[in-house]
Amino acid sequence: MLTNNGYDQYKSNSINTATPEELTLMLYNGLVKFLMQGQSAIEAGNIEKANNSIIKAQAIIVEFMTTLDLNYEVSQNLELLYDYMYRQLTQANLKKDNAIVEEVLGMAKELRDTWSQAMKLAKHPAPVQEVIAK
Questions:
Q1: Is the sign of the CA dihedral 17, 125, 114, 72 positive or negative?
Q2: Tell me, what's the pLDDT at 29?
Q3: Could you tell me if 96 and 42 are in contact, meaning their C-beta atoms sit under 8 angstroms apart?
């Protein structure tokens, strides 16, 4: 029990001290995790766990949607993508369809990896000569 309390405290501290960019990455990682858990549960025939995992993934997508600044075109495009992902997960949950979960998982991984790369580039921008050479 003591181990869990220590882990819970570590998680809480990680969240409370994270930058907004790091929090976004944590959410993307959570989205991927819950989608993978949903897939495993569907394969195992565990309907309740599949349902709970997909609902958690949808909650993260809703969080992404509600925090978008729609004054930017990229945000408007992300809103459409998130809406599609959410609706697909609704269908996946109703039908317990792993093919749909796999489609959304692929999108989530691509978004996560893109975000992670953007964070790295923001911390260490390439010199002007490298950008021009490309």
A1: positive
A2: 98
A3: yes
